[in-house]
Write a structure and sequence with these properties.
Length: about 140
């Protein structure tokens, strides 16, 4: 009986310590890729996106890369996740892109699109360290 009581106490202590996690929460698990995009300077050239892909107000592209057939453009949106989601959704539809899927959650959003022989996704995350500056990660690839 005494061994069972000590096992229960030990299990409780382990659970309490695991729940503490160092106290840093989301800031400790910061995405270095997002941090670089959120703190970068605006691209000097044209991003590798379809010609009519919208440049949304309050959005800045800071990085781009090619990963096989996929072009990736990153940056940030000055505002909250809902504002960014609504703006990208509205602008993509307005530019004639077909929306394949869209989802808005409390801390992130996705808008999948298709147009001009390409398809991809706008992923929006609260990974810039502020709920008023949103990490933008856009992928696009040939259909």
């Amino acid at each position: 009986m005494r061994q069972a009581a000590w096992s229960a106490v030990l299990a409780t202590v382990v659970l309490v310590l695991a729940g503490c996690g160092g106290g840093g929460g989301e800031k400790e698990a910061e995405n270095p890729q997002a941090k670089a995009a959120c703190e970068g300077s605006a691209l000097s050239g044209t991003p590798k996106l379809p010609a009519s892909f919208p440049q949304v107000e309050h959005g800045t592209f800071t990085k781009q890369s090619t990963q096989g057939p996929t072009e990736v453009v990153e940056g940030y949106f000055e505002g909250n996740v809902k504002d960014a989601h609504d703006e990208y959704l509205k602008e993509l539809k307005g530019a004639g892109f077909k929306i394949l899927f869209e989802e808005l959650e409390e801390h992130d959003s996705e808008v999948s699109w298709k147009g001009e022989g390409r398809s991809g996704q706008v992923a929006l995350r609260e990974d810039c360290g502020s709920s008023d500056k949103i990490y933008v990660h856009i992928t696009n690839r040939p259909d």
